[in-house]
Design the sequence.
């Protein structure tokens, strides 16, 4: 990334605690326009808590606290807002409009008793001053944009009538419906079959080119990271372990943990020419906290 | 296959589930395959392709609609619960979610020892504790862990407990149904290594059900690719991964993201979904015709 460019989101010393337990510790990184930043790590490393902190969802109805740090977000008018200090009304305006999020399991993110159209239209009308007819038109547009076939028909369907991949398209449509500048995707393809995952990754890449949004991709899958990321933040035990471009991290990892993580990935094609199964050549990982 | 003596043979096995509206879901459709002693046969495919149903049919957690299952030469297709008892010792299964597979109110030592008691090999006492302790050590746990409860363990440790339990009766075949899918990648690699070491030591056969092709490439001797209840390609690992021939196998392999940023792939934008395996009464899917394109490598005609 060009360092002279101003970041869209600058995370500085973010520390999140749950009743004394530190889930994220002194985390800092910058996100730029059009960039895809992958936050990778294993269960419990703090990657999802980081995402929820940026949305300021982490403190809603939980005992979590953003104990320290700044989340400086650049608004479209150029002003900088610290999301840690923003009031709830400001956050409501930012969520969806400026920063939106998609989750791993689209079925739990969608309400089973309303049609998908109903839910997308609701999201649009919450954030934009549109009447019902205009919102419907807008919903149709975003369904088309995420390449949902027969969008008019699909708007009338309930979540259970759709496949997992189609539901994730609906979630992406909803997330993009207000043209956010940052899209946070928390394990968006983890629950999907591999051929559907390929479609969704391709779609996300195309949409990013079309909209210029910055994407924070939270994932544990190093294959997905290699495919989509410009830059990587590796997390472990609530801390940043290593950060760099996708090439730096994959080709010249500096930290022992990153090396161990990369050594344990099953890589398609790594067994070419070998006649028998082979053990993983594991790098000893120092025990976690 | 020629390297291995046959342990399990499945002939023309089918399973149909009745669904509302006089229709049936053809989950497994005329599948035939063999699993050799000491061999890992991986079955790969996407959600709903019938791979788990196939595993359940072989271990008889589900009754097949038609076809035959031979274990070590014995026809167990119609064996009743009682007759299955002796065969069950030879076949064990490990599931995806180790937490759901363990009783939260019982110590993990009990979980591992229970099959030995049920099958009358041991009764409670120091001999049982000794065998269970040895199993714990063998799967990389400590004897002291025996008295603890499932919630006190991490996911990888719980899966080790499930492996210890599966091995308690010294089975010939272990069915692993997405057994490493829920584990973090570093833990997954350790558990896969453990499974391969145990195979070499004990001469185990694995029926390894997985959607993860990179894991399968690592540990399988042979691979069967399933699509809509049928095997569309079957062959030695090298044939499937280095010379994939059926269009579905190719599509599946192309979809796998490669952990190398210099090998990014073009991705399709359009949706393509797997058709439904639901068939109205009186209708049925067209059966594929497997052709042997090279020794041991079978591909469905297209």
Sequence:
């Amino acid at each position: 990334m060009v360092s002279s460019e101003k970041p869209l989101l600058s995370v500085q010393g973010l520390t999140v605690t749950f009743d004394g337990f530190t889930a994220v510790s002194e985390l800092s990184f910058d996100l730029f326009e059009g960039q895809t930043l992958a936050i990778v790590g294993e269960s419990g490393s703090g990657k999802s808590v980081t995402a929820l902190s940026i949305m300021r969802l982490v403190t809603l109805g939980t005992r979590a606290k953003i104990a320290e740090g700044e989340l400086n977000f650049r608004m479209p008018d150029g002003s900088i807002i610290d999301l840690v200090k923003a009031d709830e009304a400001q956050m409501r305006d930012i969520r969806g409009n400026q920063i939106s999020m998609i989750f791993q399991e689209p079925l739990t993110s969608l309400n089973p008793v309303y049609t998908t159209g109903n839910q997308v239209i609701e999201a649009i009308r919450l954030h934009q001053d549109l009447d019902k007819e205009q919102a419907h038109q807008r919903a149709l547009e975003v369904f088309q944009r995420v390449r949902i076939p027969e969008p008019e028909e699909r708007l009338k369907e309930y979540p259970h009538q759709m496949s997992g991949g189609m539901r994730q398209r609906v979630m992406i449509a909803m997330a993009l419906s207000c043209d956010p500048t940052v899209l946070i995707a928390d394990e968006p393809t983890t629950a999907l079959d591999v051929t559907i995952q390929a479609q969704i990754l391709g779609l996300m890449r195309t949409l990013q080119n079309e909209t210029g949004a910055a994407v924070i991709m939270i994932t544990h899958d190093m294959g997905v990271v290699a495919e989509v990321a410009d830059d990587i933040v590796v997390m472990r035990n609530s801390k940043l372990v290593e950060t760099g471009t996708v090439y730096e991290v994959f080709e010249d990892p500096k930290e022992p943990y990153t090396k161990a993580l990369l050594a344990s990935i099953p890589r398609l094609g790594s067994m070419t020419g070998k006649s028998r199964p082979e053990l993983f050549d594991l790098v000893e990982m120092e025990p976690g906290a | 296959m020629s390297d291995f003596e046959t342990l399990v043979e499945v002939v023309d096995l089918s399973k149909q589930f009745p669904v509302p509206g006089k229709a049936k879901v053809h989950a497994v459709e005329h599948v035939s395959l063999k699993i050799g002693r000491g061999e890992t046969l991986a079955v790969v495919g996407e959600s709903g392709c019938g791979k788990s149903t196939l595993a359940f049919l072989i271990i008889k957690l589900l009754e097949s609609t038609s076809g035959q299952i031979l274990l070590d030469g014995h026809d167990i297709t119609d064996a009743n619960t009682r007759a299955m008892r002796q065969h069950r010792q030879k076949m064990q299964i490990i599931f995806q979610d180790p937490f759901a597979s363990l009783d939260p109110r019982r110590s993990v030592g009990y979980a591992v020892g229970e099959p030995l008691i049920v099958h009358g090999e041991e009764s409670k006492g120091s001999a049982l504790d000794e065998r269970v302790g040895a199993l714990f050590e063998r799967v990389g746990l400590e004897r002291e862990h025996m008295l603890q409860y499932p919630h006190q363990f991490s996911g990888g440790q719980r899966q080790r407990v499930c492996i210890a339990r599966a091995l308690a009766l010294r089975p010939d075949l272990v069915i692993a149904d997405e057994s490493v899918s829920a584990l973090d990648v570093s833990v997954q690699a350790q558990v896969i290594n453990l499974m391969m070491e145990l195979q070499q030591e004990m001469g185990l056969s694995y029926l390894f059900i997985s959607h993860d092709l990179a894991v399968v490439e690592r540990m399988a001797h042979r691979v069967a690719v399933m699509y809509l209840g049928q095997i569309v390609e079957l062959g030695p690992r090298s044939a499937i991964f280095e010379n994939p021939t059926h269009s579905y196998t190719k599509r599946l392999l192309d979809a796998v993201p490669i952990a190398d940023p210099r090998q990014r792939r073009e991705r399709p934008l359009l949706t393509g979904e797997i058709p439904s395996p639901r068939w109205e009464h009186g209708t049925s899917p067209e059966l594929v015709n497997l052709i042997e394109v090279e020794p041991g490598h079978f591909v469905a005609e297209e």
